[in-house]
Design a protein that fits this description.
Elements: E1 2-5, H1 10-19, E2 28-32, H2 39-42, E3 47-50, H3 56-62, E4 68-71, H4 79-94, E5 99-105, H5 115-128, E6 134-139, H6 143-153, E7 158-161, H7 172-184, E8 191-192, H8 204-215, E9 220-223, H9 226-235, H10 240-254, H11 264-269, H12 276-283
Parallel strand pairs: 1-2, 1-4, 2-3, 4-5, 5-6, 6-8, 7-9
Helix pairs in contact: 1-7, 4-5, 8-12, 9-10
């Protein structure tokens, strides 16, 4: 049985939807914190069980009968994130899974300037030590992040963000499709994948032009000093630690950590990845 954790989240739900087009529903199990939110999948014959990354007992039940377990990284950073990922890895191995998969990041590195990428690197080390084959899905930076930055920055037709570098913004839809392909074709990748990225890496200077095209507005890109950006976030109620993490995305981007592009995602999809313009047209307010 293929077990997918976090299957009610933005990425997990789409992975399960696409997996259902490739394998019978009876071969899929979901580990979710709130099974009621996965009722639509249960109605299709998917096994749904409660599983919490802070509760090893719940994971033992949720992972029962697993042949593969896809661990979707949690929305936390730092030591707590790595600890919970390790608990899930250990539970997958204890359940007898013959492969553990994990949604990592193209920038995963112990020396990254972005905390989440250091966490992914630490989780990958736990996978290497777990004793069974593993696959780390080195996902490109989610394009939804660019949408969020733009939505917050365009209120006055001006994108005021820190200096950045090129980022290969990649859609959730494409990454979900790739994960489903890899799960359905077990053993296609051992260890970390190549970066699963869109075809282009773009700076916000270029993204501002795309945003203008899709909204019909004149969008100006200005550079906000790092300290001013951080202060503005905190003035809007963002906790200091989280403001630091958001700023570090730009710091890491300036260092080129997210600039790589690779054809592997296109190969898995059988077509070119979704361009950022399409994502913005679908999700950006006013497009």
């Amino acid at each position: 049985m293929i077990i997918v954790t976090g299957a009610t989240g933005q990425l997990g739900r789409q992975i399960v939807e696409r997996l259902l087009t490739r394998v019978p529903a009876g071969r899929i199990g979901l580990s979710v914190r709130d099974p009621e939110k996965a009722q639509a999948f249960a109605d299709q014959g998917v096994r749904v069980r409660h599983g919490d990354f802070t509760d090893a007992g719940s994971l033992a039940h949720a992972f029962e009968g697993a042949t593969q377990v896809l661990i979707i990284s949690i929305d936390k950073m730092g030591e707590e994130a790595v600890r919970q990922h390790r608990l899930a890895i250990d539970a997958a191995v204890a359940a007898g899974a013959r492969r553990v998969l994990y949604t990592s990041h193209m920038g995963a590195s112990a020396s990254s300037r972005f905390q989440a990428c250091r966490d992914h690197a630490a989780t990958e080390e736990a996978l290497r030590a777990c004793g069974v084959p593993f696959t780390a899905l080195r996902n490109g930076f989610y394009a939804a992040g660019a949408v969020r930055f733009l939505s917050q920055a365009m209120r006055s037709d001006q994108i005021a963000l820190p200096a950045d570098g090129p980022v290969s913004w990649t859609s959730h839809e494409d990454l979900a499709e790739a994960a489903a392909v890899i799960l359905a074709d077990e053993g296609r990748f051992d260890g970390p994948t190549a970066p699963l990225t869109a075809a282009q890496a773009l700076t916000f200077d270029y993204i501002a032009r795309i945003a203008g095209d899709v909204t019909g507005r004149t969008i100006t890109r200005t550079v906000a000093p790092d300290d001013r950006f951080r202060r503005q976030l905190m003035d809007h109620g963002v906790p200091a630690e989280y403001a630091d993490h958001l700023l570090d995305i730009f710091v890491a981007g300036r260092a080129g950590e997210f600039a790589g592009v690779d054809p592997t995602l296109a190969t898995l999809l059988g077509h070119e990845p979704t361009p950022l313009s399409t994502v913005l047209r679908k999700h950006l307010p006013g497009a």
